[in-house]
Every structure is written in structure tokens, then in C-alpha cells.
Amino acid sequence: MNKQLVASLLIAVASMLTVKAQVAKNSALFKTLKAQDSVFFERGFNQCDLEFLEKHISPDLKFYHDHGGLQDKKTFFENTKKYICTNQDKKPIRKLEAGSLSVFPLYNNGVLYGAIQSGVHHFYIREKGKPDLWTSTAKFTTVWILKEEVWIMSDVLSYDHHDPVVDTPKNDIERVLKDHKVPALGLGIIENGKLTRVEVYGTLDKQTTAPYNTIFKVASLTKPIVALTTLKLIDKGMLGLEEPLYTHWIDPDIEQDERHKKLTPKLVLTHQTGFPNWRYMNKTNTLAFEFEPGTTYQYSGEGFEYLRKAIEHKFGKSIEELAEKLVFAPAGMTDTRFWWDAAMDETRYAQNYDKQGEKIPTHKYYEANAAANLLTTVEDYGNFLAYVINGAELSENLFQEMLKHQVTLKENDFFGLGWEILTGFSDTEYAVLHTGKDPGVSSLALFFPHSKNGYLIFLNGDNVEAIYEELLTNHLYRGKELWDQR
User: How far is CA 331 from CA 294, 323, 334, in A?
Assistant: First the structure.
């Protein structure tokens, strides 16, 4: 066999292997098809947008179902209307199993014309006022054809339908929760800048199933809300990033210390006030500087409370009023509050538990704290996080200032304006995050600016290390890299 023929055969084999190989999960094609799957099923199946469905299905559709037989486009639409879309108050919905998706490109003479997508999806019955009821699981394979830059579904296989079983991810997560005596988990997934999934697992109190709209206390995840409220005021020219706060308010404990004149919104948002986390940690239970403001980083709830009082005095409005107008309303947050107000639905509250799984008495707060105690749902805070990912309607300069490395904490770890920033990932991606921790409370909000992916984790217990490890290393975008940096 001559060398030229051998070379030709090797090129042909390499080409075949390339076509058969699934694309990397961080590739543009994978992300595009993942988004296509998410939008297609959310709008077409979950929301019953039949006009959208019509535009994204081939006239020659072939749908193979292991229970429902072979369906063409007409039969498929008839069955969708009859079995999926007749009752919006009680209807089937579909959710993709995290991490199950694979994408295989289809080429014709080197030109991409389609893709094969496979994965696992779970089906639920969604009824108003009740948690989603998981009914079945199945595998799927979909052929997407690219026509004039639009992805069209041409062939579908839906098979291996079976009842929920103990080795599914949902039960894996609930087993980890039970093993570590944490009753509930709230999980929000953001993909390409959109909140695409809200999952709530477990129970409110070891007995009552935690609903979709469970209310969690999220501790220091209050701070990003107040930080954005402050940045909105700055962006509107109503407050200066370097504006002295003493012109609006001075804490009586430090009024004789001239260093109070150095305090600004920027020093608060970057945790450089010189304050302790809380004054009650001092023997005297009074507020005092522990170092010169602006010289180093020290995490401080007192700083955020100082900022709140200064802003409230300047504008004659409460932080609740300011946050509602500047953050809650534009972000689409309708079920979030700073304290146990009259609208608080206690029947949806996730009770808090210690490391031994013993219930911690609920302490109800009746005034706002800028650093802690926010009460919210996964959907609400997920909407907030998506709003931030997409710029929060801030000017580009101020948004980039928020993400700037204002203070170095350690290698690859920085603090911006209200957010921690982690670098050192496998490419130019970086993470922007904030955590929350109180007795019986653990929370994380995180996003990746380049991909615009992110997620929320809300937990109502203390024994959480193994739960974070399970979620990050096995289920969440770049979670293993994040876990390895802990």
C-alpha cells in the first residue's frame, strides 16, 4: 500500500472519528443546543406556546415514543393539545436532568447542517399551590436541522420511560440531605443570563414537603441586594462612590474618632471600613475602629449597617423603599422582604436546623438589617442574579467597577464592589460570588460573567459541606473547579 493511499485513509478515519465525537460541554455548539433544548421545552411543552412549537418543528417530523407509537407532526400536535395543554392549572411539565446532555455534530462536506442531541428528562405534574409531583423519567434523542440559522426539530426518540427510582439525581440529592440532617435545598440554575431552573428538595420541617416557592432565610446574601441599591443611587448621580458618609450620619460610638470622616460607600462595599463584623463581638458591645479605614480588608456587617443608616438619613426613605424601587421591581422580585412583615407567609418558611439535626428556634426580625436576615425564594433571588449578570441596568463603567479587583484577599481571590471575585479557572473565565452563613442557614449565589451562567444554593441546616461537594463536583457548571479552589 503506497504512502499516499495510507495518508488518505488516515485522514478519512480521523474525519469519521471527529464527526462521531460529542462536542465539549464548554463549546459554542453545545451551549447553543443546550439553550435550544431548554427554550423549546420550556415554551413549547411547559408553557404550551403552540405558535413557537410550530415554527421549530419540521413538517416531516417523526416522533418515536416507546408507549405512544410513531407520530407525525399532525398527530404530535393533536396529542400535545389533548394531553399536555388542556389544563394549565394541572399540567405535565418537563425538566432536563443536570449533566445528562450530549451533542454530536452533523456535517456535510465539512459544513455543519445539524446535530444529534441526547439526554435524560424528568416529567412532573404541576398544580397551582402544590409542589411539582415527579411522575416519570425517560431518555431522549433529538435530531436538529439547521435551516437559515434556525434550529428545527426533525426526528425524536423518547424511550425508556419509567417511574422515578432511587438512583436518580433527585433522590441522590435528597439522600445526601437526609444523611447530613439538612431538611431542604433550594437550587436555581442560570444559563446564558436566564433563570432556567428552580428546584426545591426535601422538607420545610422534616415533615412538610418544601414547595417550589419555599421561603429561605439567606443571611449575608442580603448584602448584594443593598450593594446594588447603593450602586443604583450612584449611577443616577444621587450618591457618590467616594462621598463622605459622616455628612449624613455618624454612629454615636465613633463620633469622637476623627476616622469616621474617612468612611465612604466604596470602603463599605469593599469591606475596608476598619470595623469588626459586629460590635457585639467586642467586650464593650460598642462600635470601634480596629484599623485605619481604607488600608486593608475585613469583612463587616457593621459597615453595611452604617451605610444603610447614612443612606436612609440622606434620602429620608427606608432601605426597603429604596430597594423596592431600584432593585426588586426592575429585577422581578415579588416575594422578598428584609424582615417578617405582614405579607410573610410562615407556612412556606424553611425552618433551620443545627449540625445534629435539631431544630433551631425561629427568631423573627421586625426591622431591616443591611447585612443579614433577607427572606426570599429561589425564583426571586434567581431573578436578581440574572438581573445582575445582564448588567442590572447600570452604566457600563460602573458595572465594570463593580467587577474590578478592588482589594486582593489572596492569590486568585479578590473583592469588588459588594462581590467576591475568584480567578484561576482553566481559561479566562472567572467567578463572582457571595455566601451567607447563620445558625441553620447556608447560602451561595454565584455567576460566571463570560458565559453568563450561574446558580444559587439555599440550605436550611448547618451540616452542609458534603452537600456542597455533591452539588459542585457532580451537578453544577464549573463546580469541580470551584470546589477545588475552596
Answer: 32, 10, 9
**Phi, then psi, of 318 in degrees rounded to 5:** -75, 160
> Per the domain annotation, does 202 fall within a domain?
no
Q: What is the CATH number of the domain that holds 135?
A: 3.10.450.50
- Exposed, middle or buried by CB within 10 Å (0-12, 13-18, 19+), for 449? middle
417 is in which domain, residue-wise? 216-484
Tens digit of pLDDT for each residue in 436-470? 999 999 999 999 999 999 999 999 999 999 999 99
Judged by phi (left if over 0) then psi (alpha if -120 to 50, else beta), residue 148 lies in left
Is residue 159 domain-shared with residue 237, that is, in the same domain? Answer: no
* Domain presence at residue 183: no
411-430 confidence digits (pLDDT tens): 999 999 999 999 998 888 99
Tens-digit pLDDT profile for residues 199-230? 999 999 999 999 989 999 999 999 999 999 99
- Residue 167 Cα distances to 101, 187, 254, 337, angstroms: 18, 19, 58, 37
Looking at the domain assignment, is residue 171 inside a domain?
no
Domain count, the chain: 2
**pTM, full prediction:** 0.68
